[in-house]
Specification:
The complex is a heterotrimer of chains A (384), B (174) and C (300). With 174 residues, chain B is α/β, with parallel strands linked by helices. Chain B contains three helices and six strands. The longest helix of chain C has 29 residues. The chains are: A mainly beta (384), B alpha/beta (174), C mainly beta (300). Chains in contact: A-C, B-C. Strand 16 of chain A pairs antiparallel with strand 22 of chain C.
């Protein structure tokens, strides 16, 4: 015991010294150099924002730690109408949107250019969401005020939708299953909805094999649709089978067409002789509402130079769409589906409002795409 | 050699002879042999995949029926029967449980013909000429043993994952 | 001690013969003691009707009856008829009757189905687009009171009647216990009543005849302050039947390098959508795989 006490004291003292050093020593910088900013997991303390990267780091750390007061105070706002609450909602989400269930896991900020009073940084934000990791890339502008750099926030507040009554008189379908007891064979016959595969295309990619195409509901009632694909080798043996999972518009209204995409990670089509496609369609209650328009769609490039299809979703109904999910089929000049992409919109789509979306397309295919078709899957808490 | 040892050896040998003469060959039941000819089904032609599935599931059904009636247990039935076929088998097994009877179907050979396949493919009728050894036991005692050829009319319907027997009815002739 | 074959055989031989003689004597005794039991099974048993099995011999015996849904054991008196209760022979099929008194005797017999009291009637599809050849089919199978399939050939009368038009009748004899039909769907949407009848046994089904794919899909539109309001003419199939409400019409507006689409449901025969486009725009509509006309509107 007597021998142990000095050792314990030494350990405690060394630990305290290391903590103090860790908290107080700043990263070495030299004047005029704009460096990388990276943070993940544990947040760190902020210090004076005397460089653009320090200002960016402070800002993003405050966002990650949800220090909204400090983050908002550190901004240079272009619109004085923006309130702290609106700024906070931009980061935390609202109205049950995907962002409401997400957390900022990590960020990475790289300098684009800088002068003595102005800087531009590209920020990559890694969000953990219920639908998987989502990456958001933004270009943020910083400006020097006195001896402090500030992030310029030029987001304007979202327009308020005026209060109004929106009649809902679109058709809805309910499902009555009927009682099974005493049912005669064949007396309770309601056929499953008729769906048909319109096209199928199997390609090899760097990540594995992909089977994609389009499916149509040929029936007069809604269908809950899943598409399965089975890869078969030359001997007739099954190599693998997968389902479309969320890369399909699951609830297809009558005569509605949806893309589908089935991924086979780490498989190559070299050993595949046959692809068997199987659709499963079941009866499901559904509603024609909400109607979502997909406006201003065009192919372009995002800030990182990736080929994207971007546009705006317009909610033409009176119901909030909490989590919109965009699925796009891309066609070549023969009308063949060459790719299917999807992406979730992080903010809820309010009634009579619009939200932008962007869905990436592999660069190698961008030149081949002549046309595209966008459908919107949607999750509304009111309907769940 | 001493007399007691010789006597013991004789007794043991005699016992072996009696047991061999009386012993029932309890070799594990071979799986039923089933062949299916779907070429004569009308009005709809049986698709090759359907033919394979019907053959596979019919064979599985007979395997589970055999096990259920041999062990007087409902466990082997396993969703391969529905409606009337399931009810009849369940009643038979329950009767066997209360009476202590059981029956064994041995050395089964089924020659099956598909004779009717509905236009929508929702029911298929099979004619099964089944040849097997039927053994009936009261407890562990065999009370009946015969080699038979029985004609079955079978209705099978497509279930969620397999074809199931909805009706299994023996008839004097087709 | 040596274990050669000849040594072992010499040792075993006396015991072997003694044992064999003992077993033979036992079997002979049993055989001499056994009765001459016979069973006479019913020749025309019908499902659910009491039957009897005649026996010879005397004394008590154990009776066993095994059938498709039966496994019965009880004590009986030989020389008397064994009564089979209706519920013991409810299921049509092969039965084995066994009587044991010392030795066992058996007889097998078939129970035939009773007269048909119900028709299983399978009709597909439950929803049929109009004007399609050979689309609607049905299968009827007669069953007796105890759900036995009646295989005796009998006539089934299929009658089909739509809202408009005269009823159509079609008689088919069952073969292997099944009768079937196939017809084309009519030209008018609405319920199609189908009955299958065999004497006084009737089964009814309804097939909803629904509009086929839209035909001559036409759209019209105009610019308003809110954007471009576009709507279809009443959407009908090629036989003039209005497509059901909820059918999706996809409107597409292409102007410059931008495209806008709206999937709008038909409501009271017409689908409407509001689209946004500033410059000259070409608007088209599609439903499933059917394309409509194009509409060109100038810029604002």
């Amino acid at each position: 015991m007597k021998r142990g006490l000095p050792i314990v004291l030494i350990v405690v003292v060394v630990t305290a010294v290391l903590i103090v050093l860790g908290l107080t020593v700043a990263a070495p910088t030299s004047a005029g150099t704009v460096g990388l900013v990276r943070r993940s997991g544990l947040p760190g303390f902020s210090s004076n924002a005397d460089t653009p990267q320090q200002a960016m780091s402070n800002f993003l750390v405050d966002v990650q730690k949800r220090n909204w007061d400090r983050a908002f105070a550190s901004l240079e706002r272009t619109s004085q109408a923006l309130t702290e609450k609106q700024f906070e909602q931009e980061w935390t989400g609202a109205n049950g949107g995907l962002r409401s269930f997400s957390s900022l896991e990590a960020f990475d900020a790289r300098p684009l250019h800088a002068t003595d009073s102005d800087a531009q940084m590209r920020v990559r934000l890694d969000w953990a969401t219920p639908v998987g990791p989502v990456e958001d890339v933004r270009d943020l502008h910083l400006t020097k005020r006195g001896d402090q750099w500030k992030v310029v926030w030029n987001e304007t507040p979202r327009p308020n939708v005026p209060a109004q009554v929106v009649p809902v008189n679109y058709l809805r379908w309910d499902l009555v299953t009927g009682s099974a007891s005493g049912a005669e064979w064949g007396s309770h016959n309601v056929d499953a909805p008729r769906v048909r595969i319109l096209s199928m295309n199997a390609v090899d990619t760097a990540e594995g094999a992909v089977v994609m195409g389009e499916v149509v509901n040929e029936d007069t009632i809604p269908a809950f649709v899943n598409v399965n694909a089975t890869l078969v080798d030359a001997a007739g043996n099954v190599i693998d089978d997968e389902t479309s999972f969320d890369k399909i518009l699951h609830v297809l209204l009558p005569k509605q067409v949806s893309p589908y995409r089935i991924d086979f990670p780490n498989f190559s089509l070299k050993k595949v002789k046959n692809v068997r496609i199987d659709t499963k369609a079941t009866l499901v209650p559904a509603s024609s509402d909400p109607v979502i328009g997909v406006m201003n769609q065009k192919l372009g490039q995002d800030a990182q130079g990736h080929a994207v299809l971007q546009g705006d979703l317009l909610n033409q109904s009176g119901q909030t769409v909490n989590i919109p999910h965009v699925i796009v089929s891309f066609y070549d000049n023969n009308g063949k589906v060459v790719w299917v992409s999807d992406g979730y919109v992080e903010h809820a789509l309010l009634p009579q409002s619009s939200e932008p979306f962007a869905v990436e397309l592999p660069k190698s295919l961008a030149g081949k795409v002549q046309n595209f078709h966008v459908v919107v899957n949607q999750y509304s808490m009111e309907n769940s | 050699m001493r007399t007691p040892s010789r006597f013991m050896l004789q007794l043991l040998s005699g016992g072996i002879v009696i047991c061999a003469a009386a012993m029932y060959s309890a070799a594990a039941d071979a799986a039923p042999q089933v062949t299916l000819n779907a070429s004569k089904a009308t009005p709809r032609q049986v698709e090759p995949l359907t033919e394979r599935a019907v053959l596979r599931d019919y064979k599985s059904a007979w395997t589970s029926l055999t096990q259920a009636l041999a062990s007087s247990s409902l466990d082997p039935l396993n969703g391969l029967f529905e409606a009337t076929a399931d009810k009849w088998l369940t009643d038979a097994v329950k009767d066997q449980q209360s009476s202590g009877l059981s029956r064994r179907y041995l050395n089964q050979n089924h020659q099956v013909d598909a004779v009717f396949y509905s236009p929508e493919g929702d029911v298929i009728e099979l004619h099964d000429t089944a040849e097997y050894d039927l053994e009936i036991l009261d407890g562990s005692k065999t009370i009946h043993n015969e080699h038979v050829i029985v004609h079955y009319v079978v209705l099978m319907v497509p279930g969620a994952e397999r074809w199931v027997i909805r009706h299994l009815q023996a008839v004097p002739q087709f | 001690m040596s274990w050669s074959i000849s040594t072992v055989w010499k040792t075993l031989r006396p015991g072997f013969w003694v044992l064999s003689l003992a077993v033979s004597a036992l079997c002979l005794t049993v055989a001499l003691c056994a009765q001459d039991i016979t069973l006479q099974a019913p020749s025309d048993a019908v499902a659910g009707k009491a039957a009897k099995i005649a026996t010879t011999g005397s004394g008590s015996a154990k009776f066993y009856l095994l059938g498709p849904s039966t496994a019965v054991k009880r004590d009986v008196q030989l020389g008397q008829d064994i009564a089979l209760a209706p519920d013991e022979v409810q299921s049509a099929g092969r039965y084995v009757a066994i009587v044991c008194a010392g030795s066992c005797a058996n007889a097998d017999f078939f129970v035939a189905p009773g007269k048909p009291v119900s028709l299983v009637f399978l009709v597909h599809p439950s929803r049929a687009p109009v004007g399609k050849s050979g689309l609607i089919s049905g299968v009827a199978m007669p069953f007796d009171e105890y759900h036995d399939l009646v295989l005796t050939p009998a006539a089934v009368d299929f009658q089909l009647s739509a809202k408009s038009g005269t009823p159509v009748s079609h008689a088919v004899e069952t073969h292997d216990g099944a009768a079937w039909f196939r017809i084309s769907s009519g030209k008018s949407a609405g319920p199609l009543q189908i009955t299958a009848s065999m004497n006084d046994v009737v089964a009814r089904r309804v097939v909803q005849q629904v509009a086929s794919d839209p035909c001559n899909l036409r759209i019209k539109g105009e610019r308003t302050a809110q954007g471009i309001e576009v709507e279809t003419d009443p959407v009908r199939d090629c036989d003039g039947n209005p497509v059901p409400d909820g059918t999706i019409i996809t409107f597409t507006a292409k102007g410059g390098d931008e495209t806008s689409t709206v999937d709008a449901p038909v409501k009271k025969d017409v689908a409407r959508a509001r689209m946004s486009a500033k410059g000259p725009v070409v608007i088209s509509a599609a439903s499933g795989v059917v394309m409509g006309n194009e509409l060109r509107l100038g810029g604002q």
